[in-house]
Task: structure prediction
Amino acid sequence: MPQLVGRFRTLPEYPLATIPQRKRELIARGVDVIDLGAGDADLAPPPKAVEALVNAAQKPAMSRYGFGLGLVAYREAISAWMTKRFGVRFDPFTEIVPLIGSKEGIAHLAFAYLEPGRIAIIPEPGYNAYQGGALLASGEPYRYALRPRTDFLVDLDEIPSETLHRTRVLYLNYPNNPTAAVAPRDYLEHVVARCRELDILLVYDNAYSELAFDGYVPPSIFEIDGARDVAIEFHSLSKTYNMTGWRCGWAAASPEICSVLTKVKSFTDTGQFMAVQAAGVAAIESYDAFVPGNVATFKARRDAAVDAFRAAGFSCDVPRATMYLWIALPDGIPSALFADRLLDDEGVVVMPGSGFGVGGEGFFRISFIVAPERIAEAANRAGRVLASMGVEVG
Ligand SMILES: Cc1ncc(COP(=O)(O)O)c(C=O)c1O
Result:
């Protein structure tokens, strides 16, 4: 077999890669497994989306290649929604790129902007597609640890100027996976201004823009003056509509930036199944009828999670957005060891902070993907593991 290339060998293990197999083994042994791992809820998508998929799948024209253009109605629905939701207008044909889930777009974009010697600032803990794209494009990652000290924000002023001058891409994701942090508007203004000065592409991942609680309304980066010159924003139907497996997302940006991503994609895929895009239209059009109820379900799960994990002896902030709780571990308990113990001894899947990069050590993440009672039961079991490890470590 030919030797693998260096850039492939720089890829770490994908954190979720081994969990499905370990889960299967535990279930086969009769363990009552509670999976709070992936951001992949057990909830149903909008019925209108399912109906639209069924109808569209019966039309032969939908079975043909979508190519880059895809279903025009999907582009138009996205554009109308962006205007209604954020007050910003994007031309459906030149300023929107339909994606096969936002992950592929995020990862593919790096091929156009990174190469050896060009830096990508990668927040850690963070979504793994940022480093995946950067490493596969042979870019140079600059890993910035997201810690409570900066409210889990990337403080560009802490990064050496030599690094900033070689940086071409900055990945930001607020509301944030996994920390659940949100970004204040003045922070975003500062970042946009710095990216303009330094000629850095701001890749703003807004996958959780619609999962927010207690009156918090996450902004689009394009609500910030000057963002059109430097930013591309990624959106997804995955979390908003419980449609993770459907692979439906999009990017919004200036025609110049969109055409770059479109060109890369024209060599790597031939468009999402158009029946899925038709379902995407139905999902977006059901926003008012569907999303508030779905958010209320996640809020009930969030409240249950905060109460139960605090009662079990953990400390965590109350998240204002996302479907995650970022839970601190006492000093001296490595997050990977804790997560292993929790799975092996108690059958609970959580994500160790270290799996999201070194900055994530000292925390673990749970997702609000099962009912409140199951989350509470998982917290109880986690409390038992914490108590047993606390004794050993102490
Ligand atoms: C921060 C973030 N961005 C993007 C995605 C990808 O979503 P999609 O299903 O659209 O690929 C996820 C999925 O977990 C995520 O957490």
Summary: The mean pLDDT is 96. The chain is about 45% helix and 15% strand. The first strand starts at residue 34 and ends at 35. The longest helix spans residues 287-311.
